UniProtKB/TrEMBL annotation:
This is Carboxymuconolactone decarboxylase family protein. NCBIfam families: ahpD_dom. InterPro entries: AhpD-like, AhpD_core, CMD-like. Pfam families: CMD. It comes from Thauera sinica. Residues 24-106 form the Carboxymuconolactone decarboxylase-like domain. SUPFAM superfamilies: AhpD-like.
Length: 116
């Protein structure tokens, strides 16, 4: 059975809601860190999300791939930007990264219509 990145991110979002209720300080701290790390600065939020996707791919995190692909679509990342990022992932991470690079493409193709 093939996994759905829309379903993965929906399910994990629900579970994160539970964590927000039960460990609010930890989750608030993580949220502040994420906002600070991703805000525009010397690099744009788009470029930072491409880096985040690269890390998600090389760490083989399905939910992370889903969330960062969704953010990239929201930010207007092009397919070419996605592909070049995945090329670097494959170069640095070898075969396992290549398999997750393919998953990131599936996530992008699955989630892209959500933007419309």
């Amino acid at each position: 059975m093939s996994k759905s990145f829309v379903q993965i991110t929906t399910d994990v979002s629900r579970a994160l809601g539970t964590l927000r209720k039960e460990i609010p300080d930890t989750m608030q701290g993580f949220s502040v860190m994420a906002k600070g790390a991703l805000q525009d600065g010397a690099m744009t939020e788009l470029h930072k999300e491409l880096i985040a996707l690269a890390i998600a791919v090389t760490q083989r995190c399905d939910a992370c791939v889903g969330f960062h692909v969704k953010a990239l679509i929201r930010l207007g990342a092009t397919r070419a930007q996605l592909m070049e990022t995945l090329g670097v992932c494959t170069y640095m991470g070898g075969g396992p990264a290549l398999m997750y690079a393919a998953e990131a493409v599936r996530a992008y193709d699955e989630m892209l219509p959500e933007k419309e």
